[in-house]
Amino acid sequence: MKTAWCATQGAPKDVFQVGEMPDPMPEAGEVRVRVYASGANPTDTYTRSGLRRRGLPYPIITPHQDGAGVIDAVGAGVPAKRIGERVWIYMAQWQRPFGTAAEYCVVPSERAPCLPDNCSFNIGASLGVPWLTAHYAVNADGPLEGKTVLVGGGTGAVGYYCIQIAKARGARVIATVGSAAKGVLARAAGADEVVDFRAEDVGARIGALSGGNGADLILEPFFAKNANLYPQMLAKNGTVIVYGAGGAEGTISASWGIQNQPTIRFIYMYEFPPEAYTRAIADFTALQTAGKLKHLPVREFSLDQIAKCHEAVEAGNNGTRMILNLD
User: Fold this and answer.
1) What is the pLDDT of residue 246?
2) Which residues contact 104 (CB under 8 A, 6 or more apart)?
3) Has domain 131-270 been given CATH number 3.90.180.10?
4) What is the pLDDT of the chain when averaged over all its residues?
5) pLDDT, average across residues 198-210
């Protein structure tokens, strides 16, 4: 099979290689997927770049957690009827050396759920990290009916789904965006209000939009950048769900914290409770089948262009998903 890999850490153009490897075979409980689209997320760049100061966990890495394709072989214990299923893939390279940036990928059967007929492979390859993170973040703090939810980065891969899930649960949604054009995109996803963080005083604007009370729930991709704004943006006894660091450190006022009793919860998509993945998959299937979900546009690269794909992800092309087309 044709695949991409790296054996050292560094810039994409310096470390990626593309060539042939033997086709993998599924073991017990696994399926093999002929990959047609492989999704690239920021998390996929961290190990390759060495950004988090961790070495490669395996001698070589084929990157990418997310993908989509068709099951063409199954291991022992997996029903043969799964062969031929269109599927999306999540956590393909979690604690494993080989991800979806290859013509074939082997994963545990549960990490390859069925892809609805009205969902393309490109969209399927865009789901894993963003959808699972968004679903858990929005649902982590109880009922949202009548509450105000602030979605940071509303046209990011996670934020775009957060808007839609929160609206479906009855929340009033305020989204931060980086331009007027992205504000249009966030409103199309269901945001009731948008705040341009490049052109407006975010803390003051959120305070005004919430009647001075602040948001009941903040879904936070940039904790280090925004923590100092929580006294302006977060309601008393409110909750912040942090899924992105946004820098090395963030600080809040201890006296404000004591007086306002916020809950600040950090989440890590790779270590959710098992039932969280099951619920997220079921909700995606129901909403997508009913035609009730919107998805960000994709930008396609060939497998040979994987370095350019990673460069695009690292450039922060918010509002667009980066996909390797392996069809």
Assistant:
1) 87
2) 1, 23, 24, 32, 33, 34, 35, 72
3) yes
4) 96
5) 94
